[in-house]
Amino acid sequence: xxxxxxxxxxxxxxxxxxxxxxxxxxxxxxxxxxxxxxxxxxxxxxxxxxxxxxxxxxxxxxxxxxxxxxxxxxxxxxxxxxxxxxxxxxxxxxxxxxxxxxxxxxxxxxxxxxxxxxxxxxxxxxxxxxxxxxxxxxxxxxxxxxxxxxxxxxxxxxxxxxxxxxxxxxxxxxxxxxxxxxxxxxxxxxxxxxxxxxxxxxxxxxxxxxxxxxxxxxxxxxxxxxxxxxxxxxxxxxxxxxxxxxxxxxxxxxxxxxxxxxxxxxxxxxxxxxxxxxxxxxxxxxxxxxxxxxxxxxxxxxxxxxxxxxxxxxxxxxxxxxxxxxxxxx
Length: 330
Known about the structure:
Organism: Celeribacter marinus
Order of helices and strands: EHEEEHEHHEEHHEHEHEHEEH
Low-confidence stretches: none
Helix content: 25-40%
Enzyme class: oxidoreductase
Binding site for substrate: 132-133, 270, 279, 288
GO cellular component, one term: cytoplasm
Binding site for a divalent metal cation: 162, 207, 262
Distance between the termini: 19 Å
């Protein structure tokens, strides 16, 4: 990729959720600073006076300031905010596939996904994937991806994600941590321009095991694995005590923190920047970001939904597209 990246493809997500109204708010707030276009049915937007329909993604680079570029994708039915319609489920799935196709063809530089409701897609379209990320991995032709949450002050990666805490020690394996480190380092190079990312590894146990007094995983296999990867040239720290690695001075010492489980990673970032966190999928052959919230059926259509996370997700996708074009710089 050279020159100015192509615009970002924003999927509509669940049309009965907050996605459509947030797309309009994001366009108004960004004022053309991040070129993007929304793929969906204009009937699902709360206002059509603020849209600019396009026939080709390239037109999104020249949309009047504050208006939402819309690449039309007709759905089966109109929608009512807060009330999902199973008849529209296949349209949601098809929009995701269309966005990925546009990125892979070079007509878009990244995919930013609005929230979906998995149950609606499963019931209405026979959606066979646990969630958005697994479907995107399928479309990208990869077997393993990594979830990263990011804000300006912190990037975190949970090695294990949506599993019970009691299952973490068995799922948190040397193979999984090794793959997570490699994928994370590769994409920080590719999409953030960091030539040799500094990666902090959190211990599984309190005080990183405290020499075996509070757990044995650190000594049994984490320390040897980290030493092996450092010998390959990876810039790693750890295993670090999880309770002392997220204050401001500690964060200055690394580019990303890789954690053992979901809450170990998400509690610090949501404490630091609850509204502005961005979900990034690493390991895909394309850029994918997403706001870190759900469909919020309970407030859909009320006008109170906060666009901060979507704006941050679009901003981050645009930054990643530029960094990818330039290559590593530090």
